[in-house]
Amino acid sequence: MQTQNQAAPGDLECVRRFINTWSIPNQTRVETDELPQLCHDAERWRDELSLRPPAASDTLDRLLTLRSDLRKSCEGLDDGSHLLNAWFSRVALSVQVKSVKGVPQIVVMPADDSCSAHLLAAVANALSSGTWSRLKTCGDCRWAFYDNTRNVSKRWCGMTKGGAEGRACGTIAKVSAFRARAAAKKSPVADRG
């Protein structure tokens, strides 16, 4: 998968990486789920996700559900933010005032050492700063990426393939649309006789 120009700012990058523990790699086009292996390998967890290790409350089922709900929110499938609100009500978070460049700001902090709380604190802060809406998933491969375009219009993870066997979701979608338009122009119009 491509990673250039996809990283999210600050702690939101940890959320993006966590969401991408489930993916459809462009090379194989087969769904993969790395979360179960990552939960059992603390070093790999830290290297790939940049998160503290899961706490006792971070069961695999809980983390799988959290990832699924965060992904749904990024895909625009959480109407009214019911999924996020449910998580915010059951995870220990606290609100603090921090001085950022001499200006007091409200910051959501995890109230315990659980990975879930750290991820949801990052989501809450991203919602507050307006960056959460820029975390999207590719319509083709469903890879989570941060939309850093000025008009927040990015729809695919990438426009250039990542190697000789790589795919470029945006390019493939545009070529498919072009071919469909070209085929529609070539098709004969039925006689109206």
Automatic annotation (TrEMBL):
Transmembrane stretches, start-end: none
Q: Which residues form the Zinc finger CGNR domain?
A: 134-181
InterPro entries linked: ABATE, ABATE_dom_sf, Znf_CGNR
Leader sequence range is none
* PANTHER family per record: BLL6575 PROTEIN (PTHR35525)
Protein name per the record: Zinc finger CGNR domain-containing protein
Per the UniProt record, the source organism is Pseudomonas graminis
